[in-house]
Amino acid sequence: MLDSTLGELRAALAGRRVSSVELTGLYLARIRALNRATNAFISVDEEISLAQARAADARLARGEAGPLTGIPIAHKDIFCTRALRTTCGSRMLEHYRSPYDAHVVEQFDHAGAVVVGKTNMDEFAMGSSNETSWFGPVRNPWGKDLVPGGSSGGSAVAVAARMAPAATGTDTGGSIRQPAALTGVCGLKPTYGVVSRYGMIAFASSLDQAGPMARSAADLAPLLNVMAGHDPRDSTSLERPREDYARELGLALRGLRIGLPREYFGEGTDPGVLAAVRAAIAWYEAQGARTVPLELPNTALAVAVYYVLAPAEASSNLSRYDGVRYGHRAQQYADLLDMYCRTRAEGFGAEVQRRVLVGTYVLSHGYYDAYYLKAQKVRRLIARDFAAAFAQCDLIMGPTTPSTAFAIGAKTDDPVQMYLNDIFTIPAPLAGLPALSIPCGFDARGLPVGLQLMGPHFSEARLLGAAHRYQQATDWHRRVPSETPL
Amino acid sequence: MTWEIVVGLETHAQLATRSKMFSGAATAFGAPPNAQACAVDVALPGVLPVANRAAVEMAVKFGLAVGARIHRRSVFARKNYFYPDLPKGYQISQYELPIVQGGVLAIQAGDGEKTIRLTRAHLEEDAGKSLHEDFHGMTGIDLNRAGTPLLEIVSEPELRGAKDAVAYARALHALVRWIGICDGNMQEGSFRCDANVSVRRTGDTRLGTRCEIKNLNSFRFMEQAIEFEARRQIDLLEDGGAVVQQTRLFDPERGETRAMRTKEEAHDYRYFPDPDLLPLVVAEADVEGIRASLPELPEARRQRFAAMGLGAQDARALVGARELADYFEACVAAAGAGQAKLCANWIIGELAGALNRAGLDIARSPVPAPGLAALLARVSDGTLSGKMAKEVFDAMWAGEGAADEIIARRGLRQISDAGALEKIVDDVLAKNARQVEDYRAGKDKAFNSLVGQVMKATQGKANPAQVNEILKARLAR
To answer: What's the predicted TM-score (pTM) here?
Structure first.
C-alpha cells in the first residue's frame, strides 16, 4: 500500500478497500519509524491527522469525495497552517502558529487531503542541501550521510522514503527539482503565477513558486490540478481558465522537438549524470522525437543574476522578522537597535544572514545600478534566450543537477560551490517557466539522477505528458531507496 | 541685503477609502488599538498586498483635478527601514514611477493669484503609531493606521514664504475635500504637511541648502514653523555660517524648529520595485470614466460665480468648500438669478457668522438654502428691512418656522405706504421742533434722531429708505 500511486490510492479509497484512517495510520507509522533517521518532518500531530482522516472517511461514506479525499499529504513547512506550527526551518519561527491557512493548504483541504505533517527545509528556503535548517539536516534515503538537496529536502525525502505519497514544495532557484533529482522523485515547478503564493512564506517573491512532489508524473497532475488557480489575495496570481494538467498524459512523442542546450551538456557535470540523461534522451529519440541542438548563451550568468536578485528580495522580505510582533525575540537587549540586532543574529542562521547582507548590499545607494538593475537586465536576456529556443522546440531537456547527492558537510564551507549545484535549475524561475525533474537512472554509486524538462509558459501538461510516457516505459521512479526499504 | 524664502511642500492626504491601501481592514478613525489591523497589516508570514482600486481611482481623480499627467503604468516600490510601527520593515510607496506627474494649483497670494506647479503625487501606505506615554519604559504599538492609503502630493519649490505656503496648503486642502478624496481632518492626521525650506539672496537663481520640517498638522503651525525656520537660516547665513541639510521638527509650544537628523544620518531606503505587486496599469477607459465623474472644479465655479455679478472676494470665498458653493447655488436657484449678490452677502455674512458661532458645517445648517431664499425674497420685495430680516433669520435659526410664517406671526411687515409714512413724519416733525432747527443749523446728527423717532413711532416697521427720503424732502422745504 505504501508503494501505491495516487491513482491506486484513490481507487482503493473509493472502492472502500481501505479507509483514510487506515491509510493515514500506515503513513504515520512509517513516519514514526523513519523520521529519526531521515529528519524529514519538523512537525507531526497524529491526532490532528487522524481526525482529518475520519472526516475524510465520513465524506467518502456520504459519496461527497473530492479529488483527493482521504489521501495523505505532507506540506513543506513554508506553508502557513493553523493546525500545526509553521517554522520555515528557522529558529525565528520555531514556535510560530499561523492564524490562517495558506492558499495551497486550503486547496488541499477542500480537495479532501489529509495532512500527515510539515516537512523539514532549508531555513527560509535558502539552501541546496537542507543543511541550513534550524531543525537539523535531512538525510537522503539513498545514503544516510548524503544530503537530499534543498530547500524542499524534507518533502523530497518524505516522498522518496514512502512517508507520504505526495508532498508540497516550493521552488525559487531549484528547491523542488534539485531535491527531487537527488532523492529519485518527481517535482514540478509550475509557471510563475499559476499557484497562489498567499500564505507561503516569502523568500524571493518574483521567483517563488509552489509545486507538487510525488513519485510519478501521473501523480503530479492531479496535485497540480488542486494547487493551481486564481487567488485574488496574490496580485501575481494569474487569472486563467482552469485546466486539467492530466490532459496530455497520452502525449504523442513522434515528432516532438526536444531542445538540447549546449550549455547544459558541458564540462563540470558528472559523467554518470550525463550518461543517464543521454540515455533518457535516446529513448525519446527512439520513440520518434527529434532533438534540436540549441544555445542558451546567457546560462552562465544565471547563477550570478540569481544570487543578486533573490537575496535582494529576501533582505526586504525578511525584515518583518524583527522580534516586535511575533517570533523569536532576544531575551536581553539594551535598546531598540540592540533588540533588532540580537533578535536577528539569534533567530537567523548563517546562510540566511549571508543572503540578507548580500541583498542589503546590492540594493544600497551607489550599488543598486551595478548589481540589482544590471541583474534585472540580464534576467530579461535569459528570458529572451528561452523565448528564442522555444521557437525551435517544444521542450528542453537536460540534467537537473550537475551531480548526484553529495555528502553532508561537503559544501557547507564553500557557498559558491553549493550555489553552483543549482546551475541548471536557476534559469527556469528567472524566466518564469515551468520545469520538471524526474528520475532517469543512477550513477555508478547507485545514486539517482534527475532529468529536467523545461517548457514554455503554461506547458505543464505537455511536460507531464512527456514525462509520463517515459515513466510508462521505465521503472527508475519505482525504485525504493536503499536506506528505507519497504 | 534682502533674502528670498523658498518653500516646497510635501502633503500627505489620507484617502477617504473604506479599506486600507493593500488590505481589507477598515480605516475608520478612533477604534481601540490594533482592532483594525488584519494579518496583512501586521505583516504576518506569508501575507501579500493587493492594491485598493478605490485608492487608485482617487489618485487619478486628483491628477485630473490639477491637470496632471496620469501615468498609465506606475510602479509600487519598497522603502526599506526598521521601525517598530512599520510592520513589514518596509513601506510600500511609489518611487521612480508615480501615478500622477505634474499639474498646477492656483493660490491666493496677497491680493493677486499665483499658479504653483506640482512635481508629482504618488500612492503609498501609512505606518502605525508608536505610543510612548502610556507605558512605563516601554512603547506601545498601534497598527490601526498601518496600511492606510495616502496620496503624497509634492509641490515644486515655488512658494515664496510662509504666507504662500499656507495659501497653497489651504487651496490643496479645499481641493482634496472638494473632489471627495480626503476628509481633510487635520486633528486626526488626515491631511499633514512637511515643508522644505531654504533661503537665498534675492536675485540668486540657485536654491539654497534646505531643511525639511516634518509633520505640520495645522495651518497656523505651518506659518509659524516656516517663519521661524527661514529666520533661523537667514540669521545663520548673515552671521557667516552655513545651513546644514537636515530634518527638523516644529515644537508648537516654543514656536521653534529643532534638528531631528542630518543628511549623514539619513536612511538609505534601498528602494526597489515591490515584486509582490505588478506595475499598476490604469486603463484609458477608467481615466475617462473618472474624468466624467469629476465635479465642477473650484476654479471653474469661481469664474462662473464672478460672472453672476459677485465681487472677486465673494466668489473666492464661496468656493472655499464645495458644500458652501452648493448652498449658494441652491439659494440662487430658489431666489432667482437676479438675487445672486444678495444671496452671497447673506451666506458669507449672516449665515457664515451663525454657523461659526454654533461650530456647525454648512451641510448641517438649521436654515437650508431654500429657506434662506424665501427670507431674501421678502427683503428684495421690500416687505422686510435689513434689520427685520436679521430678526426673522434668527427666528428661523432657532427653529421657529419658515420666513413667511415668522413675518406673519410677529407682524413684521415693513410700512412702505408713502401716504402713511408722510403722516407719521409730519407728526414727528411737529413734535420735535428743536431737532428740526438743529438740523437746519447744520447739525447732521439731528437727522438721525428724527429717523429714530419715526422708527420708534412705527415700532421699527417703517421702510428706512423711504423714511430718509420723505424726511429729506420735508426738511428741505
So the answer is: 0.91
